[in-house]
Design goal:
Structural class: mainly alpha
Number of helices: 5
CATH class of the domain at 54-154: Mainly Alpha
CATH superfamily of the domain at 54-154: IL-4 antagonist (De novo design) like domain
Helix content: over 70%
Distance between the termini: 90 Å
Number of strands: 0
Amino acid sequence: MSAADPTTTTPAPVLPPARTSPFAKIAIALAVVVLLVVGAWFYGWSSGAPDRAAADATRLRMMLFEARTQVLDAQLSLYTANFGNAAQHLEYAKPPLAAASTELTRLGNVELATKADAALQLVTTGRDLAAKLSLDANSKAGEASKLLGEVLSTLPR
């Protein structure tokens, strides 16, 4: 056999497998755990987005219904000439109506937010009229109730 014969060459030396240090094993395990935790958090966050949107829409409808209920209660009080009770109901209608208007603006629904603001102005005017013992407060409350009904009917369920 000749020196150029590939079958007679000496084999390459076999190196022992590289050993991973315990610190590297712990670092790899910690990285895997962190990756799993971040992945689970992101999955939970992204899958909850439709539920948050539905909850926000329900909360908005609830605020508008609360305001409309107070306005209708005020109209009933005005019908029985109970101006103090009517003024109180109209005052109670203002916070949920203002919050609903802000929420509609935040959601970018400017047309409905404008109607909610107009209803808020009518409620404020109606409250002032009821405090002055004027029966014109009933017409303002009726207009506000009508606007709130339009906003509620326009909102998606």
